[in-house]
Design brief:
Layout lengths: L1 E8 L4 E2 L3 E3 L4 E10 L3 E15 L6 E15 L2 H5 L9 E2 L7 H10 L39 H12 L10
Parallel strand pairs: 6-7
Antiparallel strand pairs: 1-4, 2-3, 3-5, 4-5, 5-6
Length: about 170
């Protein structure tokens, strides 16, 4: 068994479209590497600084993320899994080394929110003008349905055709 305590730089594209770890920032690894019958068992934690923006209001979001990891790197993936197992799902020891990046990428990215929000009750932005809804609680726009526009034209014609004569009908 070996212990690995190391700080490594974050690789490129370590996140999704709205949130992730900035390239070059630090990943703090506290891992335990154990030799087992089929390969090397890697377990421990990875700590990374997350930066992104709220999917509703586009405010910045920053927090620390600690992820627990536990993966088995197989000495020979072809004999251990048989033909039914895809190679993409397994990690393999190659030339007596293991590549931690795919495992860390899988562990961290799956913990990131798909639509991050700064707070659960975030109002977001107005879809029509982009105004911040929390700054103007009564913000709204009058939306006219285009299907009613022909009828509004009839009302305007009706008021202009009225006469001012006050005659009496018999």
């Amino acid at each position: 068994m070996r212990r690995l305590e190391k700080v490594v730089p974050v690789p490129k594209d370590f996140g999704n479209a709205l949130i992730g770890a900035p390239e070059g920032s630090d990943i703090e690894l506290d891992l335990r590497l154990e030799s087992v019958h089929d390969g090397i068992l890697v377990s421990g934690t990875a700590a990374v600084d997350i930066h992104g923006e709220c999917s509703r209001c586009l405010d910045p979001i920053d927090y620390d993320l600690d992820v627990d990891v536990q993966e088995l790197y197989l000495f020979d993936a072809t004999t251990a899994g048989g033909e039914d197992v895809e190679d993409d799902q397994m990690y393999e020891v190659q030339d007596e080394t293991i590549d931690l990046e795919p495992m860390l990428r899988d562990a961290v990215i799956t913990q990131l929110p798909f639509q991050p929000v700064c707070r659960e009750d975030c109002q977001g932005l107005c879809a029509q003008c982009g105004a911040r809804l929390e700054d103007d609680l009564g913000h709204h726009h009058e939306v006219l349905d285009p299907r009613w526009s022909a009828l509004s034209g009839l009302l305007e014609q009706d008021t202009s055709e009225k006469t001012t004569d006050t005659r009496e009908e018999r």
